[in-house]
Specification:
Chain lengths: 328, 328, 328, 328, 328, 328
């Protein structure tokens, strides 16, 4: 397990720790002397590293996507730290904690999963409860459900992001149904818990978050459509019309054709679920943009997902709005 | 006050009641005999009427947009009822209850206004509480705030629709802030209560809902921008940055340029408020579409506001989802 | 079986034949005398009918969507024929030939189906041949595959239109692969035969062509995605990657998001198949527009599917292009 | 006041002059020796500078956005000049002429302002003349009106650009009204003079042209809407309908929703003014693109504002069109 | 020549005059008695006409698009006038003044043509003067240039509309060049005079304004491109680069691809000409919308060309803006 | 003629060969020593070159776009080869084979041209055969027809690409007409052979593929419209309507306004030709994307023309689809 992370390396020091190899290259100095250049990373960022001497063995054994153990000196070059490697070897599997290398949710995934089971258990309609609970407790799915990110880039793009997003949506759905009693909570919870199940296979997230080839060819909407349809067919007596409703909730949740929904929402709960999913995703994107160092006093970093910067409200107002009340 | 409404007139009978004149025309029969043709209406719909004899005096006195008292026989022609007028005169102002002629909310506007005051009073920031309370209790505004519709066609298009929409948004905002504590409730309440104040003047709703000329030239966003900006300037010491934030909430609440917002939401609460406003409006439009008789078993009437029909879920499933639970 | 069709009724005469009831209404004359008004139709068009006397029994028994037998006099009113009904009763099922009431292909459906089996049998890859042949010979599917239209309005909108379109596409695919040998014919034939299988359930076409509720909620792409995925899973050993390829061919065949494809074609054959399907559909729409009487010398009727009129080339050139060669 | 500008530095020499600091950084040579690296600029461009020795004091005092006095040697490195600094200190306010550091109009701003007053004075309608003259002669506004640029990038992006653009528009409006006497010149002049008043606060242009935070949140249209509305309210008796007309001219002048106009022009003069404003801006952008060195014989530099290159007409024709007349 | 026009027929009277036949139909009364129904028209509008007796000969001779002479009684039916025909015969060619049947410019076409020649003669560049003058004085072109409308619907949609639009543009171009001396007046005049020459053949305007088949297949841009290119090739020594410039002015004048310009303006004068042409056309459309009776006090009729209504400014302000000056 | 190409230079060696100069620059080392830096290229790619000594003469004689002969040592720097020049001089014209410097079709252009003549000769309509044959055999055109690329970037972007594309289209048209006998082959062949004739002048392709200034101002559609219209006018008696049809085929072949077609296809063959042209171009773009080394196992390089990557089908399936048949 790592104790030193890239984001900690601000000053000259000697470190011994583990990294993932992002790039590897043999280069020559101007004088023609070869050296090994690596880009190393962990969940907090990446750093350049150079090994000047006796790198031949390491260079042969180590490749892109390997985990390595290094002993190195941190040097500040052009105001940025880089590593001068003294020792380098492949890490052993038991030395590596995957969570050190991929960003992950700050929440406790075990608790999130317990909450998820709670929401599934609270569904009143027995067919839907049966369906939803069956899927999220299936061993092949449960483990990945706890680990998957919700997206590659747009929002909740870290391990555990998917379950964090889903549990958040369940809670939001409860609040909103409390306000609009005409809405059916069972359908909203079913949609929340199943709407991104296809992402378990659309994305791969072993060492970095990326799309699988199958994911690119089909997309998570089709993948979960197939998974959920099969699960329904395995439940004897599941009403056919209710199956169609669940399928519609899944395929319409992106809300518009250009975002890959082959049908627009035509059921009240489908339309509402699209709003909730969109709101939770966009709000997560704003949160992420406001967290990153932007280099500006009053504006967040630019959010590609949202196509704009967001105001740092407290900086702009100089004080929290709520506090004005006390001050008076 | 009226006791008989257009929507009640399904069979032959004689009635005495009040209507608003929508159209007036002198026509000739094929044989060249002139008669008076009117289109009459109340809040429940419109009906054709003909007066065959001694209509000259009435025809001279009565014009479009007048309220009239009629005695008439209901006749069924081409499967539709129409009126054969026996007596017709201008109604006296004291005979007319405006609410009989314009559709209005089923909720108690007095209670809604009390709730509105409650929400305004719950704002913690003194500047915002002061601003919001001041505006909605201003005599010139309060009366119209209770009467205005929220729109001409799209949603809450009836008297009292505006306050119903606003109070609904305040409640929704509270639920959503309970879920996302990072959000500032004061700003969301301020946005909810002030975001459509311009509609008091953009629309006229004396006898029918329509746009004023000024409303067409400026739009409610600009009109409330001016009203609220002035109200802020009248509060000594109101922080300039907070004024800018309130202004931004107002002008960005349509969320996109093509819907008349000159700026996209660039503050977290502005973005969230846009979602809540949009959700509440769209849900009201679905509700309206599902209420109208559509002539189809499983589909609602076509909603122009939403560009589609919506599924009648209970009809399609044959039973309520929740009831399946009991049945099992 | 019918011998007289709506399109034949140009002059005064007395007829005895069968129709489908499209509309039914009791109306009153100006003088208050009730009469029965029907809109009757067959595959060639619709006609208004009136029954002035002794219609009470018929009016009670007969409803919209019923088939009826009539004896009537054809009268020309406002330059258009209409029927004065003398006798009217419900038709017996054995009196009705469905094909008389819905437009249908002019081709021999039995021959088309034989061609279809031939194309399926010509697929070299055993997994695909097995899949495709299995689906089109399944009893529940085969019968409807021969009867279904290809669309409600856009193209091949008549009984047997689907199989005509599919067999046409298979032939076109063979020609195009002959020109581009880099393309895989097996994939194109598989796509051609399966790409609209979902339309068997998306549309209903018993008495008129319309969408089913399930069809509106899911769309034929999702429906055939489920049907074909299940059929693949039922074939032991079907390669997983090949399944993904078939699924991608189905979901991408509309070519663009706004036409309901959740993925753009990302396989060469998927892109080519989209072009062929689009070309065959559009060409059928042009053919239909040129067939209808347009009322203009040099231009076809307006095609809603194509958003324009098409030139009547022979009329414009006054002679066929080919014939100029002989004339010289 | 500066005598040497960045664009003059083509050859080795020693200079003493003033610059604005755009970037500041301490770097190390490969050998680990620190040095000071600056990016310095004036209105004509930017240049890299390095200080190798005794830079500690200067590095502590000098920061980004400071004006500095330097003594330096110009060296040509990779075909581009850069500065080797010998002395460096903060400049004193009285040493700096802001116009040396921001590009500015080549016209005489005093004369432009006199013309502006002339146009305002020529307005016949007393309410409008009063309004317009009052605004541009208000001390807080007048000074900035003479200095503001018309935009950050798109057109007239230099000090004095706003007044140059406005005076140009006034002249153009006069010409166009001479051609279309149905148009009201008073309204066009009012629109021309007030339509960008919000830019005085939307942009900041002290040392470089940029958006203020308030400008980004509100935009110049809203800002001038508020400024002008207040100024109107301060004129006793100003007709309400005329106020609405002026407000409409301001908010519709971008002509389309996607360019931030919350209303489309619905008054004849509003539509015409949009055309004139757009034409003058685009023509200025073409002029700017043709002025920049593009590296191509027959084509201008690429104009981001216009999304294309423009033909260098004289180069393409080899002679001026007019001159052909003389040559003949 | 006509003395009575459709727009004059507001009261019962007997008239003798000429009309163009727009529609012709034999109908039956309810009682089965046939009568002749015509739609007749002139440049001021259309009116329904019925002939009850002895119409057989007339009905055989007269067809759609014929000019007829009628004697008829005007009757008011459903508040609208219609004609009861007493006599009806084909008009003789010499009885007909085409201008009575197509709307035409109120200006004097002879004077407009003289102005046009003046503008052409004022072109300094001899090649362009030669080209432009040659085209507009060619006998086959000159006659139609004076008669053609500028469009079917959008603007200047009346006989003489084209030359009115072109002469207007020449004048506008002079004014604008006076303001922007960097522009080449020769090019703008050339563009103005030639940019719609293709409309002479794109439209037909013998009895009504419509598109020719060739016009629909090619469009006026391609048609004038061919005409002008040929005219240039017939001028010995015309510089090739100048030819390309003229061609570019023609093909880019719609300014955007979606309006049928295959190239965007890439020459300064081409861009300016597009603005002037667009402005003059749009302003003519506003003028037309404001002229039509709209049925509303403060708003014009809806303009399909502009997609909106326009404010009746004087009505809204109650007085002319200019007059306020005198009033003070 | 060259024997060594850029793409062959993977290891240290000494070479003597010819290149085209893409860039030329004098630079200084950190120590201030000047050297000559060139970017050299041939049809297979580009490479950096440096000359350290005695480069003054060469630097004076050699410029961008010159062909040069070099003797150089290949060195590997940062994993990429670069050239250390020992000798450098201008190449003599007779030493240069243009095809070594521009990519060119792998097909035999002579054979392609013979096929083209065959297709032209097979046109049955004598007017069209005469027209088409006349154009492609005109000496000024024939030579360039064999050499021109079909595009700068999108598809067939190499010498001989145009004729390869056209001959391919002719073959495809024959196949498609065999399937749809309603189509006129003569028109499709005429369209195929003439639809890109304008590219002979729109592009220049002497040393690199680029647009001419005239090509940018007019585009190939307008250029071939003029060329073909003239050629038709030179054929006595060519029917006018047929001319219009040919012109329409040319101007509509891009199928949509935004791709520069001033008219949409309104003739059946015009619509079909647009599909064939589009299909052949897109398929060529897929082919090109699959040929380039993409650095990914299962995906092609990104195709800018298509806006996506394409699946490497054989890699994904691990075997060819056809081979599965044999394996069973």
């Amino acid at each position: 397990m790592k104790t030193v992370f890239v984001s900690d390396l601000g000053s000259e020091q000697t470190i011994t720790t583990f990294f993932l190899v992002h790039e590897k290259e043999i280069r020559n100095t101007r004088e023609g002397k070869p050296y090994l250049r690596l880009e190393l990373g962990d969940r907090s960022g990446t750093i350049e590293a150079r090994m000047w001497d006796q790198f031949e063995t390491a260079a042969r054994d180590v490749n892109r996507d390997d985990f390595v153990k290094v002993q190195a000196r941190v040097e500040i070059y052009r105001n940025k730290p880089q590593l001068s490697l003294q020792q380098l070897r492949l890490a052993k599997p038991e030395e590596i904690e995957l969570a050190d290398f991929l960003p992950h949710t700050k929440e406790d995934v075990g608790k999130l999963y317990a909450q998820l089971l709670g929401y599934a258990g609270s569904i009143a309609n027995p067919w839907l409860k049966n369906l939803v609970t069956g899927i999220i407790t299936e061993p092949g799915i449960a483990a990945r459900y706890k680990r998957a990110p919700a997206a590659k880039v747009m929002h909740h793009a870290y391990l555990g992001g998917l379950i964090e997003h889903v549990v958040g949506l369940c809670g939001l759905a409860k609040q909103v149904v409390a306000h609009y009693p005409e809405l059916d909570l069972d359908l909203l919870l079913t949609a929340a818990i199943l709407h991104d199940v296809g992402k378990l296979d659309e994305l791969c997230y072993d060492r970095a978050i990326a799309y699988t080839t199958e994911g690119q060819l089909l997309g998570h909407i089709m993948m979960e459509f197939e998974t959920v349809s099969k699960a329904i067919d395995a439940i004897e007596g599941f009403p056919h019309a209710l199956k169609t409703v669940v399928q519609h909730l899944l395929i319409s949740h992106h809300g518009q054709y250009e975002f890959g929904s082959p049908k627009l929402p035509m059921i009240r709960e489908a339309m509402v679920f699209h709003y909730l999913d969109d709101l939770d995703s966009k709000l997560a994107a704003v949160r992420a943009a406001l967290t990153i160092e932007s280099g500006e006093d009053e504006w967040s970093a630019y959010s590609g997902a949202l196509g704009r910067r967001f105001l740092k409200l407290d900086e702009f107002l100089k004080e929290k709005i709520g506090e004005a009340a006390k001050a008076k």
